[in-house]
Amino acid sequence: MDDKEPVQFQVADRRFWVKDEGVFDRAEIPEKKFPSYVEELKGRTELAEQKLKEKLKKLEEDNDVFRERLTRETEKRLQREKRKLVIGLLDVVDNLERALKAGEDAVALKEGIRLNLDLFVSKLKSEGIEPLDPLNQPYNPHEAEAVGMVPVDKPELDHVVVEVLEKGYRAGEQLVRPARVRVGQYRGN
What we know:
Elements (H helix, E strand, L loop, with lengths): L15 H4 L3 H4 L9 H66 L4 H21 L2 E3 L12 E9 L8 E6 L2 E3 L2 E4 L1 E8 L3
Parallel strand pairs: 2-6
Antiparallel strand pairs: 1-4, 3-6, 4-5
Helix pairs in contact: 3-4
């Protein structure tokens, strides 16, 4: 075997770029748009934004549920308060019916009406509604509505309530209905 010629191997390289050496010159190496830490921060930011959007959506849903529950509870409370008020007024209705039955005696009828009025006013007071008494007080446009002026002889009655046509009512500090009054106007000699 010594006298034989050395065997030559032939290798056929089938890689496509080996045949065309210009492919390396034409190949585009993808450039990174950002350095790696910027890409990492960008990814974290996108993830945080996504979590925030999900949290906002959940909060909106929770808010809607809360709003619906609050509306239902408010309606129930309003119905209970209406029922409580009506039950209190039924006593007045019962007494008025009794007064009609006893209506043949004028004195008893008058007394029954007075008792009903007292009962009704006490029911209003129990609900926090108080009548205003502006008679002989200086006219206050925040509590009373002047429907007329009345000439008076004394200067101390000028701009003073001299007649109450309808009582006014207040619930705490809030005016429920202003009183309708006539106010004195001094006309000097």
